[in-house]
Amino acid sequence: MAWWRSLFRSVNSKKPARRSYTIYRNTPEGEGACRLEGLQVKVVEAEEQEGAVAAGLGKEPARPACCPWQDRWKAGSYVVLVGLLIFIVAFLLGYISSRGSCSVCGDLLTVVSDERPYGMGEDPGGAPLYWADLREMFQKHLNKEKIEATIRTISEAPHPPGSSRLDVLSTHVLNSFTSYGLDHSWTDSHYVGLQKPSRSQPNFLHRVNADGAVLEKLPLGDPQVYCPYSASGVVTGGLVFANYGRREDFILLRQRGVSPQGQLAIVRVGQISYAEKLANAEAAQAAGVLIYPDPFDIPQDPRKPELSQNTTIYGHVHMGAGDPYSPGFPSFNHTQFPPVQSSGLPKIPVHPISANVAAHLLRQLTGPAAPRDWHGRLPDVLYVLGPGEPTFLLQLGVHNVKQSVMISNIFGCIEGRIEPDHYLIVGAQRDSLGPGAARSGVGTAIVLELARTFAAMVRNGFQLRRSLLFVSWDAGDFGSVGSTEWLEGYLTMLHLKAAAYISVDNAALGDDKFFAKTSPALIGLIESIIRQVDSPNRSDQSIFDQVTEHGQQWQSEVIRPLPMDSSAFAFTAFGGVPAVEFSFAEESRPYPFLNTMADTYDNLNRALHGRLPAVVKTMAEVVGHLLMKLTHDHLLPLDYGCYGDVLLQHVTRFNEYTALLKSRGLTLQWMYSARGDYVRAAEKLRKEIYSSEEHNERLLRMYNVRIMRVEFYFLSQYVAVTETPFRHILHGHGPHTMAALLEHINRLREAPERFDEVLFRRQLALVTWTLQGAANALSGDVWDIDTNF
């Protein structure tokens, strides 16, 4: 009977506590069935199950001395069967409760302290950490006073790239990462071409006569306020008013009989970036551009500081990102770059001017009246289109010079325990042509405080599944140069490593509205986060409750597309990494001092009613919650299926051209089928994940790799990165995108003679094969792919 005693010894023997991991779905309070809100991985303690088994089998039953051996055998068999039955019942109850009952699913966050990567032995961990515990821990270590002190330190004076002031701040950031006890901290340097004003030949704006003689010298303000990457040279011409410099504004000028050709165009700040204004003016054959802030775009508020009428606002004009003198190549030292420049560099000069100078010029224009919605609030200005009398001529001289400057990106890292080679990146620019309280101070303060807070949480038992990368970028005021050069340097590996990027540039420009400029894969996760973080100005309401209190749809209030002048845009459109840029702002009154020499701590704090530290702390909470979810859920909470709906929205726009294409023997069915393949591949992956072994680390890693590469799948593999860097077919720019295909098809209606069937077929092939490639990659192994057109 040794086997009998061995059986009961094995059942009753004490085992170390273990935890099993279960994939489940969140359930709203008050509902019994879990609602679809993204897969999450939670902890289910197995100790209770083992306790139930032990209780069921208990002690070895007493055996009567006179019982024959057949009875003893029969009794033993009954005991074994009863024990197995109890085990099965306990297991099923635990499994069902973890799957279906939200009261049992509870609020547990994944605990990873007792796991090792697949193939390694297990390490017993401590007690489980609950989401409420983590939030409390995060709030305990997050320090509003440290955030305020950092913003003040950063924004004491201008700190452009290459300056001694920025060198001091760079040392401060690197020393901070080291003092926090991060696992790694280092500097990554690049040698880039930056454009700066010439010391020997200042920029100028003159009124001249037909012979070029100067009649009036107009002030340009601070010589350090300029437009980096403007074309150099001197141009002379009349002046036309082009509103915000949008494409539709220049089209309206032509419709009103006003030609910008050979003239200077004066445009207002706002609506689109400086680079887009200049590109549109160049396409309209303007000779140069002047950009001014109209008081209409910055409504007055007696409680807040006002922008001086003599203030000029700087901004770069490179229609792209990164070093424009080495497009597509990383600007590492001693790299022999080919003699090529970015196609996004303008060919005409541009310079910012103040509202007072703009009013002086606009009063002298004649010509057709501007549309009513073009009118601003410059005093005594009638807002006509120009160009004025033939004798009214302006001469603009821009003499910016290119300089080779060493820039430094600074990194700090906390390594993950399970997937250390996968990381989440949070970054902000450190440089600023002005004091940069909003532009660089707030973002740098958030990055440093999050690094310090997460390092403290790790020391207190918080375990990361994936690594966290905190980055301070250089040369952000020149078009995300630092971040883009880093992307270019590691382009071949980032889609294998980076799960998401979070930008905190421009994080606090107001306290009224919360915005998330994001790629679609993060939208669902953003909703769950803003439901949990309190509004900065209403402590009894979450951010979600505030934006929906009047019945608005939260996505229409919060979600915005990624703008080109954000570092997050380059991560998605160039690197194929899901990205988001968060910001608090006010739609009715934009922060007036952004990109000016008046962007100081005091002005920013007054613009936020004295509540700047509180607003920035709330933003740090939003980003912190997002990082906790992304670094700890077993399955990355990225919505890989969202692009099915995004593609449907794009494809629907093509339907109105079906008859026109059919009349030419053309069809879009190929593209429609590729979109269907992607939707089926996403659904197939969802079912695979739902029915898989939840605690199998090999499977989890495989699924995570497929999920984190979804954004990369939408980068066109058929265009050269050096010529068309923004290869994303949905968010990028170029002939390979769905937007370019739609614009070309529209020629069938607007200008049929300009429709090029050969170009159309090429564009359709570029889009379709990118979509099909995304569907194939999401499907998994080649033997699982079923491609039918």
Description:
Keywords: Membrane, Receptor, Transmembrane, Transmembrane helix. It comes from Gekko japonicus. Residues 235-300 form the PA domain. It is a single-pass type II membrane protein. By secondary structure, this protein is of the alpha/beta class. It folds into four domains: 2-106, no CATH class; 132-196 and 403-632, Zn peptidases (Aminopeptidase); 204-399, Glucose Oxidase, domain 1 (3-Layer(bba) Sandwich), CATH 3.50.30.30; 642-784, Up-down Bundle (Transcription Elongation Factor S-II, Chain A). It is globular, with a radius of gyration of 31 Å. Mean pLDDT is 84; it is low at 1-69 and 95-125.
Q: Helicity level, as a percent range? A: 25-40%
**CATH level 3 topology of the largest domain:** Aminopeptidase
Q: Sheet with the most strands?
A: 8 strands, mixed
Using only C-alpha atoms, the radius of gyration works out to 31 Å
Terminal Cα span: 67 Å
CATH first level of the largest domain: which class?
A: Alpha Beta
State mean pLDDT (0 to 100 scale): 84
Class computed from helices, strands and strand pairing? alpha/beta
The number of distinct structural domains comes to 4
Which range does the strand content fall in? 5-15%
Q: What is the topology, as strand order, of the major beta sheet? A: 3-12-14-13-15-18-16-17
Shape: globular
Tally the beta strands.
18
Can you name the CATH architecture of the largest domain?
Answer: 3-Layer(aba) Sandwich
**Count of alpha/pi helices:** 26
CATH superfamily of the largest domain: Zn peptidases
Q: Unreliable stretches, pLDDT < 50, 5 or more residues?
A: 1-69, 95-125
